[in-house]
Amino acid sequence: MNVYDSERMAEALAGIGFAPVDAPDGADMVILNTCHIREKAAEKVYSELGRLRQLKQDKADAGGRMIVAVAGCVAQAEGEEIQRRAPMVDMVFGPQTYHRLPEMVARAERAAGVKLIDTDFPAEDKFDHLPSARGAKGVAAFLTVQEGCDKFCTFCVVPYTRGAEASRPVAAVLAEARALAAAGVREVTLLGQNVNAYHGDGPDGREWGLGRLARALAEIDGIARIRYTTSHPRDLDDDLIAAHRDVPELMPYLHLPVQSGSDRILDAMNRKHTADDYRRLVDRLRAARPDIALTSDFIVGFPGESDRDFADTLKLVGEIGYAGAFSFKYSPRPGTPAALSESQVPEAVKDERLAGLQQLLEAQQDAFNRATVGRALPVLIEKAGRKPGQLVGRSPYLQPVHLDGADLAADTPIGTLVECRIDELRRYSLFATPLAARQERRNVA
Ligand code: 5AD
Ligand code: SF4
Q1: TRAM domain: which residues (predicted)?
Q2: Which of 74, 110, 220, 240 is placed for a possible disulfide with 34 were both Cys, Cβ 3.0 to 4.6 Å?
């Protein structure tokens, strides 16, 4: 989401004469787009600001001015603390105010020394004001369809930093997707903190869910692949499961965080489902789309988590079999209910559990990658490889796939879907041979 938001900010600022540069040294403005999800992410902002202070000074010494801004969820949650700990920061603004960025920057430019803080949750719909993705680069793009979250998991800051759940209207999403497709994009990843809670107003006056949206997106000429992230198990409805069965463009690769395998902990987390609910959901997904692969997020050391609870997590992981996962030590976040719990788990126990869980998850990921060797899979070509004549693309499971052959490279534009046989796994990359007869011919403008 922050990658997408940063692109939108760059586009908004292009309108007032800014262009992106690769490094902060000497820049007229530096925006840190920040994440507040765990303490480590938030603390990074302050060390980064320490470094920027020197660059800002260097620029001032050379007679120039560098505007330093902090955006994103740390700005939203810690606006005043940022001002206190890093007084050289000129602007602090939260994720709900990006559409006001050009106006804010113009004000900051006019008045050196004035501090601008904007962490409102405006009543107006920010989706209405954001520039849509015009400058699409490459074959795969993000598309925000939903923002915020009403679930209030007891460990999570998102409902506080990103605000209430809101969906973009269907017409706006389809228009943006068409613009992306026209710019050569073939794969869209629909984004939202709770993306499958999507319930956008449809052109027919009814609310559309994510399944219906996916069906409409699949009709757009040029769109070959659709993904979405991140989902909540409670919002995976029958229609979305049916879409996984019916819509070939919907990739068989789903990030479906479960967080824990213990019902006691799931309840304390306010996840609103049990481990068995999750197992049944996975069974239904696999019945609908047998080649679907799953990834998840896990938290170890949530307050009150016992050895037995943790064993339940390992058991669930063993049963489901993941193609990949993110796992984290529980990090108490200010303002969230779980942070106040008196049964915090000692750091050493968290470390040990995380290591055990990651070992199992890595073995599963490795087994999944190995099992793709020998399979025939479509590969979406994204770019030229490092070796002459080499192409690099991605499998439906987001695995990087390398294809060799000068003839092939000359013949295969970026953005082509090539049916391949996967020959080999080297580290995290797959190597494949095209099954030429089934290669899709399509020129991408
Ligand atoms: N501590 C650790 N992990 C967290 N996550 C969210 N909040 C916390 C926290 N306080 C993890 C969850 C979520 C992912 C994006 O980050 O697993 O799914
Ligand atoms: Fe946070 Fe996701 Fe729970 Fe919402 S559903 S509160 S974003 S973990």
Answers
A1: 370-436
A2: 74
Domain limits, the chain: 2-118, 126-371, 376-438
Same CATH fold, 376-438 and 126-371? no
Which of 297, 330, 336, 361 has most ligand 1 atoms within 8 Å of its beta carbon, as the pocket-test mutant? 297
Of 148, 353, 320, nearest to 230 by C-alpha is 148
Q: Are 180 and 136 in contact (CB under 8 A)?
A: yes
Query: Which numeric CATH code is attached to 376-438?
Result: 2.40.50.140
- Give the closest residue to 143 by CA, choosing from 152, 134, 151: 134
CB of 430 closer than 8 Å to CB of 399: yes
Structure tokens that stand for 419 in this block: 């049916």
Token digits of residue 221: 């000429």
Q: Give the model confidence (pLDDT) of 367-406 as tens digits.
A: 999 999 999 999 999 999 988 889 999 999 999 999 987 6
Q: How far away, in angstroms, is 257 Cα from ligand 1 center? A: 10
The runs of H, that is alpha helices, within 143-274 are: 158-161, 170-182, 210-218, 238-246, 263-268
Gap between the Cα atoms of 166 and 203, Å rounded: 17
Nearest C-alpha to atom 16 of ligand 1 is from which residue? 37
Six-digit token pair at 277? Answer: 């609910």
CA of 343 relative to ligand 1 center, distance in Å: 18
Which residues define the annotated binding site? Answer: 149, 153, 156
Residues in Cβ contact with 87 at an 8 Å cutoff, skipping those fewer than 6 apart: none
Residues at the annotated binding site for [4Fe-4S] cluster? 149, 153, 156
Give pLDDT, residue 134: 54
Q: What is the DSSP letter of 249?
A: T
Q: Give residue 359's pLDDT band: very low, low, confident or very high (50, 70, 90).
A: very high
* Residues 359/317, Cβ–Cβ less than 8 Å: no
> pLDDT, tens digit, for every residue of 88-134?
999 999 988 888 899 889 888 887 777 778 877 765 565 665 555 55
Nearest to 260 by CA among 209, 305, 202, 228: 305
> Ligand 2 within 6 A of 186 CB?
no
Rg of the chain on CA atoms, in Å: 23
Q: pLDDT digit string (tens) for 178-231?
A: 999 999 999 999 999 999 999 999 999 999 999 999 999 999 999 999 999 999
Which class is 2-118 in CATH? alpha beta
The domain covering 126-371 belongs, at the CATH homologous superfamily level, to tm_1862 like domain (3.80.30.20)
